[in-house]
Write a structure and sequence with these properties.
- The chain is α/β, with parallel strands linked by helices.
- It folds into 2 domains: about 120 residues, 3-Layer(aba) Sandwich (D-Maltodextrin-Binding Protein, domain 2); about 100 residues, Periplasmic binding protein-like II (D-Maltodextrin-Binding Protein, domain 2, 3-Layer(aba) Sandwich), CATH 3.40.190.10.
- The protein has 12 helices and 13 strands.
- It has a 6-stranded mixed β-sheet, with helices on both faces. It has a 5-stranded mixed β-sheet with strand order 9-6-10-5-11.
- The N and C termini lie far apart (about 70 Å).
């Protein structure tokens, strides 16, 4: 009888130990996986480049690709992502909810913003009354108008700052008309408008070389730096430090320099 009880106790202990081992493995697996939401170009490409380097530090990188600018923040807030990498500080701060709950922790690159046209080869060719497509989100709409102002097409109310809208235009010598569209639609709008301002990532996806193909382009000193964003309180996560260690490297800087022809500029 004693032997039977002892055998049962040993068997029970083995089952418990086995269960605990499986749970420990499951928890360990969860702790070393980092899930990051990105736009495909260049963000997704840059993370794919360093995926193995991060794995060598013990962190498995899961990349989730989004083709718009809204869902990556929604997914981060919902807890489906650990971080996202696609946006600028002005874009993050364009929403009070995002501004209060998310944190921009470090920058990676600038995607110089440009004006493109399928109809005209130079800025001087754009006629009076031309229709220009611009972003409809607050951060990038202001960015578009500031680019046009910097090149003499319009003049904005100085008080409008980075959040300028067409209502803030105080001088419009060419009587330009503006069509406000989502960022992803801007490249597709080119056949229907005279020109369109297009974010660097969408320009690259559409096959443009921003330096060669744009009529005008933002300088590399742009305040619109793309970087990593997390929920507030997660800034010190060791997985993010590991990602930073392998992403902000000469390897990535060289890749950016050789693959994007000035359409992406490293800031580290």
């Amino acid at each position: 009888m004693k032997k039977t009880i002892l055998s049962l106790l040993i068997a029970g202990a083995m089952v418990l130990a086995s269960t605990q081992t499986v749970e420990a493995k499951g928890n360990a697996q969860k702790s070393i996986t980092l899930t990051v939401g990105v736009n495909p170009v260049p963000h997704g490409e840059l993370l794919e480049l360093i995926k193995e380097d991060l794995a060598a530090l013990g962190v498995e990188l899961k990349i989730v690709v989004f083709t718009d600018y809204i869902q990556p923040n929604a997914a981060l807030l919902a807890g489906d992502l650990d971080a996202n990498y696609f946006q600028t500080i002005p874009y993050l701060e364009s929403s009070e909810e995002w501004k209060n709950t998310l944190s921009f922790i470090w920058g990676v690159h600038v995607e110089p913003y440009g004006l493109y046209s399928e109809k005209y080869k130079s800025l001087a060719d754009i006629p009076d009354g031309a229709t220009i497509a611009i972003n409809n989100d607050p951060a990038n709409e202001g960015r578009a108008l500031l680019l046009l102002q910097a090149n003499g097409l319009i003049k904005l109310d100085p008080a409008s700052g980075l959040r300028a809208t067409p209502r803030d235009i105080i001088s419009n010598p060419k009587n330009l008309k503006f069509r406000e569209l989502e960022a992803a639609q801007l490249p597709r709008s080119l056949p229907d408008v005279d020109a369109a301002t297009i974010n660097g990532n969408y320009a690259l996806e559409a096959g443009f070389n921003p330096v060669r193909d744009s009529l005008i382009i933002e300088g590399a000193d742009s305040p619109y730096v793309n970087g990593l964003v997390v929920k507030k309180g997660s800034e010190g996560d060791s997985r993010l430090e590991a990602l930073k260690k392998v992403l902000l490297t000469q390897k990535v800087k060289d890749y950016i320099s050789s693959h994007y022809d000035g359409g992406v500029v490293a800031v580290f």
